[in-house]
Specification:
Chain lengths: ~300, ~250, ~300, ~250
């Protein structure tokens, strides 16, 4: 066994390995701590949190699709107060990087949460400007390069932690959005959020989701996600967290070879709660087998 | 760790009606912990169908470490399960959810359609006096097993057995008395049971159903409307998979 | 058995049923005529044809993905001369609507083909402004509303047959593109073409496709396609041909209920050569069972 | 109709080497038509894996309407097939492709690795004198079947059997003579065979491999570079699935 180094550095924050969980698919870590040793993870990314509690959308909120799923949770969250009291102390117990995902309807909403987190033991902030499931805010910010740059600037001005901007795949040219976030001062990008989709129940002749549309995630979207990571990695200098359908070490390596410095596992947690740990082990094996000393040697290696 | 995902061996499977199957699987870690009203998530073998299929625990046998699941073919997943033969394996996670609280009172167990199976394990776990009311569309199933656990009253929509009508028609007709009600079945039935319990001032516990993605409380897919702001979500939502599937009737809006 | 009517009308052209094949997945019909009676189909849509022969891209040109596939054929075609001599006479033998898919690198390329087809026994023209696999032309036209409107206008000025504009899903807002095509005078829209994707072979550490990126098709993309058809159907008055992952009658009905007047079957032909006929029969059964006298009663019925 | 897609019953399956399997399926309509050098498309049962897995016909038995397929586990699909047991069904389409032209000349049949299987059916169909040359990495397979059809020369990369080296090393070492060459194997081998045939002025037919989507000539996924502008595409491309997989060596660029 040769010595391999799986560490990655995101804006000065060191992760022991590149594997984290995708926001909204892992709660705040507590539910899955019965399956996974959170200390193994490169980072935990929490469910999106807003300045006040959000009730989310009516049910049904999820539907299965071929190789994936649609969700329209609508960013239900208990608000920053409860989050700070309950979820941050829970995560404090673990030796893993803590990333808080922030959502909002207006710029002020985002800034309020970012400010509240300033003195909290949180390593990075991930700003979700790409949720397709809420009417105002969310995706609206993420589909216009001027808005992306403006919100990034505003967040950066208040943030005490490095800032990850989470981009929407529902755009004509992802490189335009990636560059806009970089221009606004983003430290890291994460992509992709979900692709907007719809399912119709032909027997009941109605929408499968109460919200009509939802966000498509899971292995079905992986080719789109890999392509966008590849394109963005060639357009900006800041690191990228890749996600979209990662379920195995091979999937994770696809994103890393395409240019992602780290990866998130989302939907796969739902059908394989141990996916993250299997991926970490699989990446280590791959590095051993191929005699790759540092994970960073693989980042963007296919071009 | 109280939960686990495992490859469970299929011990036997029989067909109860045209579309209802009776599956025994070997899952010692799950059987060890399982309580009436809890469920397991089953996963298909097909790479295009990823989400869990939640199925209630119908019976547990701790000695052999096995679980009984009774389910209706509703689509792809249950269709796949119905083809399993002894020796096959199925991926199962559980036990999930809270389960029914066991009260030391005269109990009425109400099951409608595919909500009947969890009543069997509940009847086995409840020590006191119990009345079981089972509502069917037409063809009966599990009646022998239920009769072995308490007094059984049957209702059928087509009147082919027991009272013609639904479970409440049977309860009213037979004037069945109880101090606590446990119910599982379609939402209209649960709504009627809730109203009946309120009218009579009887304690009442309902097992709900909702579309799930994680099954463990992480994704917030499976919420139901709760009367009070709940302590987890701080909005009027409770998670069927984690805070439920069993709720005190007054807690939830149907 | 009640009498049901599955006819649909696309810009004055009557199809016996709403089921056609998607361009590029059925050759010019000859290869699949060994499996399918072409007389059963609502229409046959040919592989894209250009003014001159195109060699297409190097191989590998296809790769499998979860619930779908990537292709980068690169619009290989024998050019309009051979097409007119060989493929049109072949299709002439069948009692089905004939739709020719047209591709080009420049506006002039498109117009040359459109003019050549003017006196041919062809019922409709489908203009592909959305192929992600060729450098110039193709998708570039399809991602800018001004270009969509301009090329539509130019084609309409020359076309003797009604014109279908085939839209790209790789855009921020499909309704903008749909409206642009309508403004340019399009008679019908078809959507979606493929979503741009990428696959990396982690063992060989190279792209799975020689062209690096390719177009994602198959059941994996269906939720995105249904959503776009739904959105576009509410934005324009002209009929829409829906496609993207249709493999069963249920899939086809999803698109019709979402607002498509007709549907195309693409990737499914590859793994089920009889898919089209099964879908036609399944739609008929559904209409019988649900007592729907006319297929048109289902178009856009879920809203 | 000369092609068909059908559910073929698995008759038997044996494991030849660590990763090579020998599968007999019942597919009368396909067996009826099949010629050496043609292939069938097999489809997995998994909804996430949609494309065909092209597998060459290793042997046909018209009397029993069955086909022999010998394949190496290369990924998901072949992995799935390797688990099939008698009585299972596999979806198969064929026969596809052109097949080898049968010439009345002294023939040399060259197979490399997993390109060996189609040489068995070819050897059975060729009447005249024939030399069979089979190149392996290390472990041999199908040698008994091949020996029954003609003189067999073996080459192994590790020298554990026959000539140490590749098929061309064996041909040169044994100075094997022929008037027509048929070859199937990895591209570097085919390139060497083509050069050898050109050098010696021997007629030569090569069976090529390329990624496929339709398998029937409709999608243009599987093209190879052809020397002449071909009559179908009118560019320098031929379709491996329809115009091939067998090409006259001079026709194609490798
Ligand atoms: C807590 C709980 C306990 C249950 N117990 C039983 C039981 O003991 N026996 C039984 O027959 N059924 C039970 N169900 C319903 C059962 O989960 C569904 O019938 C089953 O998931 C259908 O899957 P499918 O693949 O056959 O159908 P499909 O329609 O193909 O399923 C598509 C998706 O929708 C979900 N889904 C479909 N129907 C339901 C439903 N009614 N509730 C929740 N999700 C659904 C599936 O899980 C899957 O993700 C229970 C549901 C819940 C929530
Ligand atoms: C005309 C022809 C005849 C063949 N005959 C045989 C045979 O007799 N025995 C045998 O073992 N193999 C044969 N092959 C190769 C065989 O098709 C592949 O090994 C097989 O498709 C791999 O599928 P998989 O799902 O196991 O691998 P995966 O890597 O999971 O396959 C992914 C996709 O790539 C395609 N693919 C992967 N490898 C190849 C390949 N080498 N050639 C073409 N497509 C590929 C698959 O069909 C599938 O669509 C033949 C290939 C061709 C083109
Ligand atoms: C149920 C669910 C809830 C999600 N909630 C959030 C969220 O709150 N904030 C966010 O930025 N992304 C959210 N996402 C998007 C994921 O973080 C991720 O970007 C996406 O699902 C793609 O990755 P995957 O295919 O691995 O799931 C959610 C996804 C799912 C499936
Ligand atoms: C192999 C292949 C070739 C294609 N060639 C063309 C083409 O020439 N012109 C075109 O407009 N679309 C082309 N398409 C796109 C399809 O017509 C269709 O829009 C897309 O595949 C989505 O439908 P599906 O998921 O049913 O395949 C091609 C698709 C595939 C898979
Ligand atoms: S299914 Fe995820 S919270 Fe209940
Ligand atoms: S695989 Fe489609 S043309 Fe050969």
């Amino acid at each position: 066994m040769r010595k391999i180094n799986t560490e990655v550095n995101l804006a000065g924050v060191k992760l022991k390995n590149p594997v984290m969980v995708a926001s909204g698919t892992f709660g705040s870590g507590e539910e899955y701590s019965e399956f996974v040793d959170l200390n193994r993870l490169g980072a935990v990314v929490t469910k999106g949190v807003a300045n006040v509690p959000w009730p989310g959308n009516p049910t049904p909120r999820v539907a299965e699709t071929c190789g994936g799923m649609l969700n329209a949770i609508g960013l239900q969250n208990p608000g920053i107060d409860v989050f700070v009291q309950r979820d941050i102390p829970f995560l404090q117990q673990f030796d893993t990087v803590k990333i808080v995902n922030v959502c909002g309807r207006t710029e002020e909403d985002y800034l309020e949460v970012v400010e509240r987190l300033g003195d909290q033991p949180v390593d990075l902030l991930e700003i979700n400007i790409s949720c397709p499931n809420v009417k105002e805010g969310g995706i609206a910010f993420g589909q216009d390069p001027k808005a992306v740059e403006a919100i990034t600037k505003a967040v950066k001005a208040k943030a005490k932690q490095p800032v990850i901007m989470k981009l929407s795949p529902n755009v004509t040219d992802i490189t335009v959005m990636a560059k806009a976030a970089e221009a606004g001062g983003a430290d890291v990008l994460s992509m992709i959020n979900t692709l907007t989709g719809m399912k119709i129940d032909v027997n009941r002749r109605t929408f499968a989701l109460a919200n009509k549309t939802g966000g498509l995630s899971g292995p079905a979207v992986k080719p789109v996600a890999v392509r966008m990571v590849y394109q963005a990695a060639r357009a900006v200098k800041i690191p990228i967290i890749g996600m979209g359908g990662i379920a195995t070490a091979e999937d994770a390596l696809e994103f890393i070879l395409a240019g992602a410095s780290a990866v998130s596992v989302g939907t796969a947690n739902f059908y394989n709660p141990c996916a993250t740990v299997e991926i970490i082990e699989g990446i280590e094996e791959y590095m051993q087998k191929n005699e790759i000393p540092r994970l960073t040697d693989l980042v963007g290696a296919v071009r | 760790m109280s939960k686990c995902k495992m490859q469970a061996e299929v011990l036997r499977q029989t067909q109860l009606t045209e579309d209802i199957f009776d599956l025994w699987i070997k899952a010692p870690q799950i059987a060890e912990e399982a309580k009436a009203g809890q469920f397991v998530s089953l996963y298909t073998k097909d790479g295009a169908h990823l989400l869990p299929r939640p199925i209630s625990i119908c019976e547990t046998d701790r000695e052999t470490g096995s679980l009984r699941l009774v389910y209706r073919i509703a689509g792809y997943g249950t269709g796949e399960f119905s083809g399993y033969r002894p020796g096959d394996f199925v991926e199962a996670m559980g036990p999930l959810g809270n389960g029914f609280p066991l009260k030391n009172k005269k109990a009425m167990l109400i099951g409608g359609g595919i909500g009947i199976p969890p009543m069997l394990e509940l009847a086995k776990e409840l020590d006191g006096e119990k009345e079981i009311v089972a509502g069917y569309r037409d063809v009966l199933f599990l009646t022998e097993d239920l009769e072995a656990q308490g007094r059984l009253t049957v209702a059928t929509e087509d009147g082919s057995a027991g009272t013609r009508g639904n479970v409440l028609d049977a309860i009213r007709e037979k004037d069945i008395q109880a101090e606590v009600i446990y119910a599982c079945g379609p939402t209209p039935m649960l709504r009627a049971v809730k109203a009946y319990a309120a009218e009579k001032g009887i304690e009442c516990w309902l097992s709900l159903e909702e579309r799930m993605a994680c099954g463990v409380g992480a994704c917030l897919a499976c919420v139901c409307k709760s009367k009070e702001v709940d302590s987890h979500s701080h909005v009027h939502n409770k998670r069927v998979c984690k805070d439920g599937p069993v709720f005190e009737a007054g807690e939830v809006e149907l």
